[in-house]
Amino acid sequence: MKDGILIDLPDSDYFADPAINCSGLKIIAQKTPLHFKSKQEEPREETPALIIGSAVHCLTLEPDLFKIRYVIAPKMDKRSKAGKEQWADLEATGRIVLSEDDAEKIQAIANAVRTHKTASKLITGGFAEVSVFTQIDGTPAKCKCDYLRENVAIIDLKTTEDASKNGFMKSV
After folding, report:
1. Are 162 and 21 in contact (CB under 8 A)?
2. If you write DSSP's letter for every residue of 25-45 in order, what string do you get?
3. pTM more than 0.85
4. Is 96 exposed, middle or buried (CB count within 10 Å of its CB: 0-12, 13-18, 19+)?
5. Is 158 helix (H, G, I), strand (E, B) or coil?
6. What does the DSSP assignment read for 112-166?
7. For 24-32, what is the mean pLDDT?
8. The pLDDT of residue 124
9. Per-residue DSSP letter, 64
């Protein structure tokens, strides 16, 4: 990818680019460069925590895209034939399926951020999900800013299981 700041770059293009990012550097620091190379060759694992975190980002920072990317499943028994069919129909939409419980949690988090006195100001007047590509000592590097207010701030929105000071510091 050419060096620069890109707005509206699809996630698939960002993740397909082989430039190193913070996650890759963490793998190298905590394990080995071979682990990093192996991780690059694997498809990106979408864990429940990553799905919820991405949905929170979308609803908080790009709310117009939420209904395009996600669908909320009504309560259903996925063990029954009807429930399995209904779930399959939801997955066939191509959107990420969220349970009602997860959707309520995601909505509550997004509302908390958007109504917070300081946070709400930080996520206005800029651009969401901005990709940055550069070279560091000749090595291609990239990062994805959750929200960029040019000449003001780079915002990194985080979700966590433990919001205590120690728990949050450990998770980020």
Report:
1. no
2. HHHHHHS-HHHHHHHHHSPPP
3. no
4. middle
5. coil
6. HHHHSHHHHHHTSSSEEEEEEEEEETTEEEEEEEEEEETTTEEE-----S--SHH
7. 90
8. 93
9. H
The per-residue DSSP string of 84-120 comes to HHHHHHHHTTTSEEEEHHHHHHHHHHHHHHHHSHHHH
Q: Which of the four pLDDT bands, split at 50, 70 and 90, describes residue 45? A: confident
What average pLDDT score do residues 68-86 get? 91
Pairwise CA distance, residues 32 & 72, whole Å: 39
pLDDT for res 133 = 97
Rounded to 5 degrees, what are φ and ψ at 149?
A: -110, 100
Task: Of 155, 145, 160, give the one whose Cα is nearest residue 123.
Answer: 155
**The token pair that represents 6 in the structure block:** 């890109």
What does the pLDDT look like over 95-141, one tens digit per residue?
999 999 999 999 999 999 999 999 999 999 999 999 999 999 999 99
| Sheet-wide strand order for 127-136 | 4-6, 127-136, 139-149, 153-155
